[in-house]
Inverse folding.
């Protein structure tokens, strides 16, 4: 058992260094991936300030034609005053007006919106349709219309039929009304404030960003500028996951070592107390009583160790947080779990030695001096 | 059960041990009867089967063949728990190596027996005091047992063995590690116990102890002399 304990200790030291480096690489990879697979294209220093179109009608197709580009779409936000959004035949409270985005079919695909009528947002179509987010539908009072039949909204004087309620996993569009890009350009009188969202293959953001302006506006690449977007929620989830795996695995290994040490201590205790075991059996103690004695000692070691360890660990968290000016994250549940883990480890570790005790023949044990 | 006068009734005991390829016939038909208050010495050369006989009489081991009745109860077929209980209630042990717990006090060593038997807590102080008084070491009650002399440790072991007034006291070479004066004191104590009705079986090489006994049973190659 001692050999195993040493092996685990050394293994933990090696593993902690190795796993730490591996986790760091994974985290770096997650970081690289989240900042290098999304590019935004918007007006650059060379944009035509006299109101010419920023994006050509086939801008999405030109961008999608680039290698390593997965999806591309344009979006123009219609400001509230210009949009004057309301449901046809109803008055809408100004404070509850949803936002209006004019988007291309490619943009809907980029943000993960799937609807049977997304084709109506294509460059070749100028269908007077609108898609609404869930909360936007409630605000406009169209949520309970069966199939939204007959419901329509006014955007900048354009009468648009509401053809569905949608949601997105990539963007929060609950409070948004989506209308075709071309209608938005008409309402806004131009697309100088529009931007294109481009999804690339993982890690290809930098290369695509450098080629994108020229691909979309070959005659005036400086009219557009590309910037990379960091998806912080995905990054955070990735880092959390890698760190949790790392610390969790180290914790398991340390508990295993502790279990082996307790088991070894209990086994040694059994070996050195054989004469005492024989005495107790001679006095009339049953084997189960002896087993309970050693299990109890193991449990006590685990309980006291777990309590001290949890307390020390908690103080360490507070101390380290104070040293580096971090906000301490420590729940009472974790401390209680630590104590319980110590108790469980002590009980489990002393199980095998206690079992050995039950097999000691009292006639032999009493002869040990 | 009533008041049984015959404490031990063992007939034709056989016990065999295997040690790798070797087979040892430790007992080959040993028999023994002991009455209440009787002092019996079991003598014999090394390897004659004395310790094996003591283990069987003390319910620490079981014979392969033969019968052993303790206080009229046949011990054959008893479950492990039943044997533990019978040993706990009816038998006291004194060993050559004393087997006291050195890190515990004299008081705690005697208390260990009462705790094992689960005597009423309120009764324990009086019983322990009486037992220590009877063996003459009451003044050392609070002292760690490791600080006692050999003779005092053996007296402590006797106190522990008889604190619950067992019917049988098994003593394996009780004077083996003692000087003559201490050995004499221990035998005197054992005699007092016999006078109280406790049956004594003493395993011994010591001729003085053998002469002290009421009856001597000699074991030779696992077989016994007069019962």
């Amino acid at each position: 058992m001692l050999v195993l304990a040493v092996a685990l200790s050394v293994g933990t030291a090696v593993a902690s260094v190795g796993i730490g480096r591996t986790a760091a690489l994974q985290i770096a990879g997650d970081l690289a991936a989240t900042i290098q697979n999304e590019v935004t294209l918007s007006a650059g220093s060379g944009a035509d300030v006299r109101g010419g179109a920023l994006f050509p009608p086939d801008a999405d197709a030109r961008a999608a034609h680039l290698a390593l580009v997965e999806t591309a779409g344009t979006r123009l936000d219609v400001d509230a005053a210009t949009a004057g959004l309301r449901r046809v035949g109803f008055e809408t409270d100004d404070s509850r007006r949803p936002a209006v985005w004019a988007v291309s079919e490619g943009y809907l695909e980029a943000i993960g919106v799937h609807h049977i009528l997304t084709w109506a947002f294509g460059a070749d179509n100028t269908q007077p349709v609108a898609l609404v987010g869930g909360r936007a539908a409630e605000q406009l009072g169209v949520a309970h219309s069966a199939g939204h039949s007959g419901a329509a909204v006014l955007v900048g004087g354009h009468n648009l039929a509401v053809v569905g309620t949608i949601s997105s996993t990539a963007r929060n569009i609950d409070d948004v009304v989506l209308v075709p890009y071309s209608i938005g350009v008409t309402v806004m009188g131009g697309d100088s404030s529009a931007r294109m969202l481009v999804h690339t293959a993982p890690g290809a953001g930098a290369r695509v960003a450098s080629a994108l302006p020229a691909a979309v506006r070959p005659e005036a690449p400086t009219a557009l500028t590309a910037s990379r977007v960091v998806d912080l929620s995905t990054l955070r989830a990735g880092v959390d996951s890698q760190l949790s795996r790392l610390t969790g695995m180290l914790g398991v290994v340390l508990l295993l070592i502790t279990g082996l040490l307790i088991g070894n201590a209990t086994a040694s205790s059994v070996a050195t107390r054989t004469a005492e075991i024989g005495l107790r059996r001679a006095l009339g103690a049953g084997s189960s009583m002896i087993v309970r004695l050693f299990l109890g000692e193991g449990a006590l070691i685990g309980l006291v160790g777990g309590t001290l360890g949890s307390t020390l660990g908690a103080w360490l968290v507070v101390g380290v947080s104070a040293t580096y000016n971090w906000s301490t994250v420590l729940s009472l549940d974790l401390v209680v779990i630590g104590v319980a883990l110590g108790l469980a480890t002590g009980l489990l570790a002393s199980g095998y030695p206690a079992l050995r005790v039950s097999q000691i023949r009292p006639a032999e044990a009493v002869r040990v001096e | 059960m009533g008041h049984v006068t015959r404490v031990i009734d063992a007939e034709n005991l056989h016990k065999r041990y295997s040690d790798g390829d070797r087979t040892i016939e430790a007992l080959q038909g040993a028999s023994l009867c002991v009455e209440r208050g009787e002092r019996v010495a079991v003598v014999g050369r090394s390897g004659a089967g004395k310790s094996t006989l003591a283990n069987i009489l003390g319910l620490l081991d079981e014979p392969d063949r033969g019968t052993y009745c303790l206080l009229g109860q046949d011990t054959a077929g008893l479950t492990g728990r039943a044997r533990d209980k019978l040993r706990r209630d009816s038998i006291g042990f004194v060993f050559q190596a004393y087997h006291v717990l050195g890190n515990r006090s004299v008081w705690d060593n005697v208390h260990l027996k009462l705790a094992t038997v689960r005597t009423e807590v309120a009764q324990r102080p009086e019983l322990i005091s009486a037992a220590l008084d009877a063996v003459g070491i009451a003044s050392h009650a609070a002292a760690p047992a490791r600080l006692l002399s050999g003779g005092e440790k053996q007296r402590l072991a006797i106190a522990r063995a008889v604190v619950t007034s067992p019917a049988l006291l098994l003593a394996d070479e009780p004077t083996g590690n003692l000087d003559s004066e201490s050995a004499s004191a221990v035998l005197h104590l054992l005699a007092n116990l016999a006078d109280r009705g406790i049956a004594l079986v003493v395993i011994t090489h010591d001729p003085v102890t053998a002469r002290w006994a009421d009856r001597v049973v000699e074991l030779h190659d696992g077989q016994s002399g007069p019962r």
